[in-house]
Amino acid sequence: MIQVAVVDDSAVVQETFKQLLSEEPDINVLYTASDPLFALTKFEKQWPDVIITDIEMPRMDGIAFIREIRKRQKDTPIIVCSSVAGELPRSTIAALEAGAIEIIAKPQLAVKQFLGEIQSHVVSLIRTAAATVRSAGSAGNVKHLPTGTGGSVATPPVSSLEALLDDPRSRLPCRLIAIGASTGGVQALETILTALRPPLPPIVIVQHMPEKFTEAFAQRLDQLCVINVKEARDGENLKSSTAYVAPGNYHMEIRPDAAGFHLMIHQGDPVNRHRPSVDVLFHSVAKYAGKLSAGILLTGMGADGAAGLLEIRKSEGRTCCQDEESCIVFGMPYEGIRIGAAGTVLPLDRIPQYIGSLIHR
Question: Distance (Å, rounded) from C-alpha 54 to C-alpha 6?
Answer without folding.
Answer: 9
